[in-house]
């Protein structure tokens, strides 16, 4: 009796399975992959055509960038996922945001010793613009927010805390829970906060207020002014605006009266 | 420019600062104003400008003076500008830098950028007209008195018509772009759905997918920016792109890692690599996915995640025991160390030196003294 070779048997089995599937109308995954490959080629050329007509629009128009991002998000596509993605390669969106990411990291690093790793989106925006120089493309705050969202995957604690209508950008892995956030928001008005204010506005016990403030001090996010008239003030360098503090040059410092 | 009045630049009660931007030069109509570059500030009530060097030179104009404004794109050698068309001054306007002007408009020239946000905020404030709701203690001249009511400067009608035409043209360009974009998105969505169908079939093992086909599928996902659905994770199969990247990183990072004590934060690596590339930059995910392949490709680097979530790339040769031993030695020698002091000692970043101390503590070699003065580590004598 003939013994069928293992190879022949396996092939026959596969052909049988295929036939069964086709009968039921189910398409095999490997056929779909081939189909996807074809669709991808078509899409790529469509995108190239789009890019040749409208690439400038994305570069120049921040509103268009926002719309573009939102449309992508709606259909489940992340145009910034990879520098090797079509969107990035052909529309140039990738380089724009990835470079912005580098600039954001550098600004945050440079200021960390002063603000503990917390900075307002406004200040970050200003400093990034300064760093980019005169001939670079202008960027909106929305652009910054999207770049920051991408930076999160690298685990350095990048996050955004809503405060007073805008955001504080966190760039260190300091643990900040709801209590901390709420105190930061309270301090936004004047740049500092006191224990009494926390007790008054938030109706907390003294211990809870002190616990939160101590944590902020430890993380380097708050500075203590124990010589303030009345009670001690906890200042948040992240919230210092240019109006109330400006960088003093050595010459200016020498001229100031002690 | 004759609409401005001298001001001390201080905000009134109920007046809030909306945005400020350095590097702004003023233009009286088409002519550069005889002023230096300064800071433009927008509040809920006024447009304020202050000289960058001489802070005493400060002027302001109520927002109600503004009829409309438009953007003027940057050109070669020219900064982007916002052109602001103004009502005539009220009779009781306080003196300012200019007595008269032949122009009814000014320009803000943004020499250090920031025009996008400034324009956006200005649009918001002019739309919301918050100055009408919150009167300020000192009456700021509103610019529309009974005499100036309907009077319009000559030429404004022509300007308005030009603006309208330009807006229509821009709208047409944008809507064409959006239309094309929408069509594109429809096709992209089809592929997203197709990829989901494929992924679920792979999961349910319907059909016979080879390793090669899986890799190809992953690269399609990468090209389209579709998140990798749950697929069969075969050992070591990222996309070819990430494998290549991983090898490149293996070469490129040897020297920098040696210089930095064998360890670098992933964000540091990101900046280093992208600054070197200049173009065709890596996305954060590209970098992460490449680093995840170090081990399977048997490269001498490792991606490591600390408890805090901080991610680092470290040289394989720098073993854990060595790091902990060196941390213990240093702390013992100095009696105690904070992360900052340790960082200075080793020439490491504060973030990474803190992680090493925490690691040594975790292994029981160090213990901590945690106070508001900072976190200090001592050898563990317990």
TrEMBL record, chain A:
User: Organism's domain of life?
Assistant: Eukaryota
Q: Name one GO biological process term.
A: protein transport to vacuole involved in ubiquitin-dependent protein catabolic process via the multivesicular body sorting pathway
Which Gene Ontology terms of cellular component type are present? ESCRT II complex
The UniProt function text for this chain reads:
Component of the endosomal sorting complex required for transport II (ESCRT-II), which is required for multivesicular body (MVB) formation and sorting of endosomal cargo proteins into MVBs.
Q: How does it assemble?
A: Component of the endosomal sorting complex required for transport II (ESCRT-II).
The listed locations are: Cytoplasm
Family, per entry: Belongs to the SNF8 family.
Q: Principal place where this protein is found?
A: cytoplasm
Q: Spell out the coiled coil positions from the record.
A: none
Q: What is this protein called?
A: Vacuolar-sorting protein SNF8
Keywords in UniProt for this one?
Coiled coil, Cytoplasm, Protein transport, Transport
UniProtKB/TrEMBL annotation, chain B:
- GO molecular-function annotation terms? phosphatidylinositol-3-phosphate binding; ubiquitin binding
Subcellular location, record wording? Cytoplasm; Endosome
SUPFAM superfamilies to which the protein is assigned, alphabetical: PH domain-like, Winged helix' DNA-binding domain
The protein's matches in InterPro entries, at most eight in alphabetical order, are given as: GLUE_dom, PH-like_dom_sf, Snf8/Vps36, Vps36, WH-like_DNA-bd_sf, WH_DNA-bd_sf
Task: Give a short account of what the protein does.
Answer: Component of the ESCRT-II complex (endosomal sorting complex required for transport II), which is required for multivesicular body (MVB) formation and sorting of endosomal cargo proteins into MVBs.
**Which ranges carry the GLUE N-terminal domain?**
1-138
Name under which the protein is recorded: Vacuolar protein-sorting-associated protein 36
Q: What is its main location?
A: cytoplasm
The protein's UniProt keywords, in alphabetical order, are: Coiled coil, Cytoplasm, Endosome, Protein transport, Transport
* Record-annotated membrane-spanning stretches: none
Q: Which Gene3D superfamilies match?
A: 6.10.140.260, Pleckstrin-homology domain (PH domain)/Phosphotyrosine-binding domain (PTB) (2.30.29.30), Winged helix-like DNA-binding domain superfamily/Winged helix DNA-binding domain (1.10.10.10)
Could you describe the subunit structure of this protein? Component of the endosomal sorting complex required for transport II (ESCRT-II).
**Which biological process, per GO, is one annotated for this protein?**
protein transport to vacuole involved in ubiquitin-dependent protein catabolic process via the multivesicular body sorting pathway
UniProt similarity note:
Belongs to the VPS36 family.
What's in the GO CC field?
A: ESCRT II complex; late endosome membrane
Signal peptide boundaries: none
Pfam families per record: EAP30 (PF04157), Vps36_ESCRT-II (PF11605)
Species of origin reads Xiphophorus maculatus (Southern platyfish)
């Amino acid at each position: 009796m003939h013994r069928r070779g293992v190879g022949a048997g396996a092939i026959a089995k596969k052909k049988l399975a295929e036939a069964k599937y086709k009968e039921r109308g189910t398409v095999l995954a490997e056929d779909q992959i081939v189909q996807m490959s074809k669709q991808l080629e078509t899409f790529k050329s469509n995108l190239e055509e789009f890019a040749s007509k409208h690439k400038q629009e994305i570069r120049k128009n921040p509103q268009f960038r926002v719309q573009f991002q939102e449309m992508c998000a709606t259909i489940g596509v992340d145009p910034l996922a990879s520098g090797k993605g079509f969107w990035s390669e052909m529309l140039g969106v990738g380089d724009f945001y990835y470079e912005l990411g580098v600039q954001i990291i550098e600004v945050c690093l440079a200021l960390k010793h002063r603000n503990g790793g917390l900075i307002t989106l406004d200040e970050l925006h200003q400093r990034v613009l300064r760093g980019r120089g005169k001939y670079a493309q202008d960027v909106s705050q929305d652009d910054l927010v999207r770049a920051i969202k991408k930076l999160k995957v690298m685990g350095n604690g990048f996050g955004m805390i809503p405060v007073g209508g805008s955001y504080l950008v966190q760039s260190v892995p300091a643990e900040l829970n709801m209590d901390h956030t709420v105190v930061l928001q309270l301090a936004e008005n004047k740049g500092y906060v006191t224990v009494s204010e926390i007790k008054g506005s938030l109706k907390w016990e003294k211990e809870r207020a002190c616990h939160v403030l101590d944590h902020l001090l430890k993380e380097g996010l708050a500075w203590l002014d124990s010589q303030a008239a009345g009670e001690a003030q906890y200042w948040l360098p992240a919230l210092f605006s240019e109006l109330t503090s400006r960088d003093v040059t050595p010459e200016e410092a020498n001229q100031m009266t002690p | 420019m004759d609409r401005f009045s001298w001001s001390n630049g201080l905000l009134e009660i109920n007046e809030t600062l909306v945005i400020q931007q350095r590097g702004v030069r003023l233009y009286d109509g088409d002519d550069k104003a005889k002023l230096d570059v300064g800071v433009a500030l927008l509040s809920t009530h006024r447009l304020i400008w202050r000289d960058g060097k001489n802070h005493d030179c400060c002027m302001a104009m109520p927002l109600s003076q503004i009829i409309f404004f438009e953007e003027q794109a940057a050109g070669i050698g020219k900064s982007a500008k916002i052109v602001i068309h103004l009502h005539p001054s009220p009779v009781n306007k306080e003196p300012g830098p200019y007595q008269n002007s032949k122009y009814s408009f000014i320009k803000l020239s943004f020499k250090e950028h920031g025009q996008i946000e400034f324009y956006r905020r200005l649009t918001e404030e002019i739309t919301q007209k918050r100055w009408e709701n919150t009167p300020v203690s000192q009456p700021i001249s509103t610019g529309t008195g009974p005499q100036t009511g309907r009077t319009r400067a000559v030429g404004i009608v022509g300007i308005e018509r030009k603006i309208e035409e330009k807006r229509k043209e821009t709208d047409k360009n944008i809507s064409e772009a959006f239309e094309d974009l929408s069509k594109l998105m429809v096709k992209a969505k089809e592929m997203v759905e197709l990829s989901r169908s494929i992924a679920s079939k792979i999961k349910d093992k319907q059909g016979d997918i080879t390793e090669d086909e899986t890799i190809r599928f992953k690269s399609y996902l990468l090209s389209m920016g579709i998140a990798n659905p749950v697929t069969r994770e075969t050992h070591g199969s990222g996309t070819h792109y990430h494998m290549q990247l991983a090898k490149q990183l293996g070469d490129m990072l040897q020297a920098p890692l040696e210089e930095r004590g064998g360890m670098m934060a992933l964000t540091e690596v990101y900046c280093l690599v992208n600054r070197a590339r200049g173009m065709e930059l890596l996305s954060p995910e590209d970098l992460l996915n490449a680093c995840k392949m170090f081990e399977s490709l048997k490269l001498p680097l490792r991606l490591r995640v600390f408890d805090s979530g901080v991610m680092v790339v470290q040289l394989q040769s720098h073993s854990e025991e060595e790091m902990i031993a060196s941390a213990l030695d240093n702390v013992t020698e100095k009696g105690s160390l904070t992360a900052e002091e340790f960082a200075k000692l080793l020439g490491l970043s504060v973030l990474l030196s803190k992680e090493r101390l925490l690691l040594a503590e975790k292994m029981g070699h160090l213990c901590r003294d945690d106070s508001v003065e900072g976190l200090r580590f001592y050898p563990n004598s317990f």
